[in-house]
């Protein structure tokens, strides 16, 4: 989506990913009708359109709360019970590095309308429709927990996660938390110009840590960031514990209109993504046009298959048969 302009105009963000991949067939081990071959390395992020074709959404299982203890000695207090709930977040607001964002081609808060901004407006509508009921505003299962993933590094996953978070933060009644869950190679704070510190992994390791104190408020009023936190060798094992869901639920305990975006390691590069997929309601799988192979996509989808809804975000498209040119309609004078 960023990078040098192609000779032809950049296509719509929603160039149907199904034109390149049949994700439902991949999940059913049926040969898809089209294949995009893998290509050599290309700069990421790349100028693109993205597409998201939803799979049939399975029912989301709801956990049944344990029955209250009535008779007998009091049970031992679990480690999970020691973690306090997240209060309304407070503390200083940190300025986001807008010059860095502009250099990377990322949507700027209160910036001019751009093609990238228009494309992610379409993407976020799909995400919001799967997260909240349009009539009541209530969450749909765990749809407000969104995993942004890719098969391999260098396919624009983190770039897409930041753009999606920025676009969602522009909503009038939305609260957005962007979580760095790439514990091995965290980079969200660096890209946004925010300080590193305790974060998501610290809350998984230490049951007494109030995770709300690690959340960084930004000068974008509805956007906050949770750093990855400490580096541990057994990060997958901590993420696989029963504590993960409780920590995640505390992130939305005080605000029913909060949506949490997780930027995780690529599915085929680390096992963390498959564990996170068990706890989220939807996944945005970034697919790099002319680079992500059919085999890689199949493997990645199988690994995160426990997520009830997986959509493709096609990144790096250089041509649109429909001739869409998002952003050009408004012009420079838009406000």
TrEMBL record:
Alphabetical list of Pfam families matching this protein: AAA_31
InterPro entries (UniProt xref): AAA_dom (IPR025669), Bact_polysacc_biosynth/exp (IPR050445), P-loop_NTPase (IPR027417), Wzc-like_C (IPR005702)
Biased composition (Low complexity): 35-61
Residue stretches making up the AAA domain: 152-274
Coiled-coil intervals, chain numbering: none
Region annotation (Disordered) ranges: 35-79
Keyword terms, alphabetized: ATP-binding, Kinase, Nucleotide-binding, Transferase, Tyrosine-protein kinase
Highest taxon of the lineage: Bacteria
Protein name, per record: Exopolysaccharide/PEP-CTERM locus tyrosine autokinase
Origin species: Sphingobium lignivorans
